[in-house]
Write a structure and sequence with these properties.
Blueprint (H helix, E strand, L loop, with lengths): L4 E3 L8 H17 L10 E4 L1 H10 L3 H13 L4 H13 L5 H17 L7 E7 L15 E5 L2 H13 L4 H10 L8 E7 L7 E6 L10 E8 L3 H5 L5 E6 H4 L7 E5 L5 E5 L7 E5 L2 H4 L6 H18 L3 E7 L6 E8 L10 E8 L4 E8 L3 E8 L14 E4 L7 H4 L4 E4 L7 H9 L3 E3 L4 H4 L5 E5 L5 E6 L3 E8 L9 E6 L16 E5 H9 L3 H5 L7 H10 L7 H18 L5 E4 L5 H5 L21 H4 L5 H17 L5 E5 L5 H13 L11 E5 L2 H5 L1 H7 L2 E5 H9 L17 H16 L3 E5 L2 H4 L1 H10 L3 E4 L4 H14 L2
Parallel strand pairs: 16-17, 17-18, 18-19, 23-24, 23-30, 24-25, 25-26, 26-27, 27-28, 28-29, 29-30
Antiparallel strand pairs: 1-2, 2-5, 3-4, 3-5, 6-7, 6-12, 7-8, 8-9, 10-11, 12-13, 14-22, 15-19, 15-21, 16-20, 20-21
């Protein structure tokens, strides 16, 4: 029996030639990772020798050689070749000794599990798959909930035939593998009853940016095939690896609830062993995993990655009867881990039309082209090479036309769906899970597909102007003056992790509130008193599942800020507390009822004055709770708090007092508090402010506006608005001198150093500690600072 059958606990990663990458990996984890709490469902594998025995017994070798010779000579298509070979294999008879070995092993497995007929997954494992340079993900078939010897042999025969699906043939052709030298092993593995719970996929890096310090997890209810195949919009979670080592932290930095409109479950009494059913309203509105399960899976992923010594692509399943979490597959990640880090493309889009649809962003690129709408892979003959493929979802049968597409847009699927995985491997931008793309987009419509604007991908009407620049990270010079990044969008924060920045000099809380939280905090605190029925209904929907509703604000704000804090951890990340003006606050959901109307909001009720005011003090308390959660629960102690528009030392005292009441006391647990320097009083009384704060951040736009008395938005006064005016430079030089005299740090966040090399030189001459710029300007500013430092005595 051992010539044809190997039990998983006899296997290791050195057995790929015998049982394929998938089965070898299962044996490797069983043998070496149990002590790390990793559970792998038991089973057995047929060997490459078993495959060759089947081929020889049915005299298929001459057929295979002839068919692939015709393919190579151009006498047959991939479809014709695959169809002929699969048909021959499906008609083949099992050699008696091989069938007996498989059935005997199945009986032994059933006895081990104390079952009359075990329910098993029957999975293909080719001897050339799951290699670091080629994943072969989804190229061969899997069959779930198989019971009984007859059903098992039928599923095994179909696995053998799947070695020659059109997509598998095309993939081997593209990767240069010899079809006749590749063999197929079959894994027969006890099923995890995830049909009663959930399952999914996880990666030990961010699949879009290559950021290697997160675990990305996708999850859906039911069997995991729906996630892999992209037939469902799954939940998405991210956990931050460096902080997972400390059990006192809960570093979940991203949670997105997917629609999960259907799930794959067991069935009986029919030819199909599984079927899709609609999920309940309760399932659609809830997360598949608890926070504890997210963290447990993430820690298992780290243990697997550490054992294999490379980023990994892992499938997991939860048993609905026991609530246990199992690992059912692990293979090397083959896209981001093979990219070179020195050159980073940066895309700019101008002249874009209105947004037609949006979904999850895959791949990071931007392309324009005509839409080619196809609903069925049988219609691939209609596909126009170079077009944007638009369809409901893809499976491996779509690979031949995906290879010819400029971009891909699907209605369904998550970051670990087939469309996402293949798009990354092919280097194509893709927008997946767009919902209604096949309804909104039409044949031959000119569109621009953008995956360069963060986690969300967009399809714009018309052809936009696309500019691509390559950033050479290796050529960035070192500087004494710290050069930091201005970041606002959590969805795009990971794009810049390879830049050698010294931290984040400005993270705008209000951007996270606008785009992720979306509602006014006071509307949550006084929800029952809201008179706007429309706003009340929208808030009720957003906060579904949160009790009290204020937890929604704290949770979503801390999650958004966490992704920015993670991007450059453990370097400092300076988070500015909310700095909306009253008209901007009023535009938030439910905000109009809580904001006064002001003639000049720029100089009105904003910044520090709000934080201790009865009109907003409760809202500021929620902001403080989010920062405490970020630092103390998640573990991001690199976060520094910054207070904007603080008009006087007395006002600073009042704000610091309110912060302390909410658990944020300067100096405790390493908390540093900075103040924005954007008002002349901040300079005039710099020594007094320096006694109350650990540092200053010069907001050069506001400081210029208030020093010169010029409205920066006035077209009539535009020539007078000059950040390099001598009066402004006097302010900057003075606050740097006074702050340093008091032992406080000073940085500047503004566009001036990006636009004017001599302004960067001026700041260096003044001895500024840091300059914070937008990512696109980072390298240019770093180079200017290096030149200025070289000139300095």
């Amino acid at each position: 029996m051992t010539a044809f059958i190997r039990w998983f606990d006899e296997l290791g990663r050195g057995d790929v030639a015998s049982v394929g990458g998938k089965n070898a990996s299962l044996g490797e984890m069983l043998g070496h990772l149990g002590s790390h709490g990793i559970k792998v469902p038991f089973g057995f594998a047929t060997t490459a020798r078993a495959y060759r025995h089947f081929i020889e017994a049915n005299r298929l070798d001459p057929l295979l050689a002839a068919k692939f010779a015709d393919l190579k000579a151009g006498k047959a298509t991939v479809t014709e070749t695959g169809s002929a070979i699969r048909s021959a294999i499906l008609k083949g008879e099992w050699p008696e000794d091989l069938a007996s070995a498989i059935c005997q092993a199945y009986q032994d497995l059933s006895r081990r599990l104390s079952m009359a007929e075990a329910d098993v997954a029957v999975r293909s494992s080719a001897t050339a798959e799951d290699l670091p340079e080629a994943s072969f993900a989804g190229q061969q078939e899997s069959f779930l909930n198989i019971r009984g010897e007859s059903a098992l042999l039928g599923a095994c025969r179909r696995c053998l035939a799947s070695l020659f699906t059109d997509r598998a043939i095309s993939y081997r052709e593209a990767k240069g593998f010899d079809h006749l030298k590749v063999a197929l092993s079959i894994g027969v593995q006890h099923m995890v009853r995830s049909d009663l719970a959930g399952a999914g996929v996880m990666f030990t890096l961010d699949t879009e940016t290559g950021f290697d310090r997160v675990v990305l997890i996708n999850a859906a209810f039911g069997l995991g095939e729906s996630v892999v195949q992209g037939t469902v919009d799954p939940d998405e979670y991210q956990a931050f690896k460096p902080l997972l080592e400390d059990p006192s932290f809960r570093p979940i930095i991203h949670k997105r609830r997917g629609e999960k409109v259907q799930k794959l479950i067991y069935t009986s009494g029919s030819e199909q062993s599984t079927r899709n059913v609609a999920t309940s309203l309760a399932e659609r509105s809830s997360f598949v995993l608890t926070d504890e399960e997210i963290l447990h899976l993430a820690r298992m992923a780290i243990a697997i990655e550490r054992h294999y010594g490379r980023p990994m692509d892992i499938e997991w399943a939860k048993d609905g009867r026991t609530a246990e979490l199992f690992i059912v597959q692990a293979r090397p990640e083959t896209v981001q881990s093979r990219k070179t880090a020195s050159l980073e493309p940066s895309y700019r889009i101008t002249g874009k039309g209105r947004t037609l649809v949006s979904g999850l962003s895959i791949g990071g690129g931007v392309v324009a082209g005509p839409v080619c709408l196809i609903h069925d892979p049988r219609d691939i003959g209609r596909f126009v090479p170079g077009a944007v493929l638009v369809t409901e979802n893809t499976n491996p049968d779509w690979v031949p036309i995906m290879k010819q597409a400029a971009a891909i847009v699907t209605d369904r699927g998550g970051r670990t769906s087939h469309a996402a995985i293949v798009s990354r491997e092919l280097g194509l931008p893709a927008v997946v899970g767009a919902g209604n793309a096949t309804e909104v987009l039409h044949q031959e419509q000119e569109v621009t597909v953008s995956c360069a604007e963060g986690d969300e991908g967009f399809v714009y009407e018309g052809v936009a102007e696309i500019t691509v620049e390559a950033t050479d990270v290796a050529a960035v010079p070192a500087t004494r003056t710290e050069v930091m990044l201005n970041l606002a969008n959590p969805a795009a924060a990971f794009r810049w992790w390879r830049l050698p920045a010294d931290g984040v000099g400005l993270a705008r809380m209000e951007f996270v509130i606008t785009n992720q939280v979306r509602l006014h905090p006071m509307a949550l605190i006084h929800f029952d008193a809201l008179e706007d029925a429309g706003a009340k209904a929208a808030i009720a929907e957003l906060t579904q599942g949160y009790r009290p509703r204020t937890d929604y604000f704290v949770d979503q704000l801390s999650l958004g800020l966490a992704r920015i804090a993670a991007a450059l951890y453990p370097k400092p990340v300076i988070v500015r507390m909310s700095d909306f003006k009253t008209n901007e606050y009023a535009n938030l959901l439910g905000g109009a009822a809580f904001e006064p109307k002001e003639e000049n909001p720029m100089l009105g009720f904003r910044g520090a004055s709000r934080y201790y005011s009865p009109r907003y003090r409760e809202g500021f308390a929620l902001e403080c709770q989010a920062i405490r959660r970020l630092r103390e629960l998640m573990g991001f102690t690199n976060v520094v708090v910054m207070i904007p528009f603080c008009r006087s030392p007395h006002e600073a005292d009042r704000v610091l007092e309110v912060m302390a009441e909410n658990g944020l006391k300067r100096g405790e647990k390493g908390l540093q508090v900075y103040v924005m320097c954007e008002i002349p009083s901040n300079v005039i009384l710099a020594s007094a402010f320096a006694r109350r704060f650990d540092g200053f951040s010069i907001g050069s736009n506001d400081l210029t506006q208030l020093t010169l008395g010029v409205d920066r938005d006035s077209e009539l006064l535009a020539p007078l608005f000059d950040e390099q005016d001598e009066a402004v430079k006097w302010m900057i030089r003075t606050v740097i001198e006074e702050a340093h005299r008091a032992g406080a740090k000073v940085g500047l966040c503004g566009q001036g150093p990006s636009d004017h090399p001599d302004f960067a030189e001026f700041l260096v001459d003044c001895g500024i500690d840091s300059i914070s710029v937008v990512p696109d300007s980072f390298i240019a500013v770093k180079q200017r600072v290096a030149k200025a430092e070289a000139k300095a005595p």
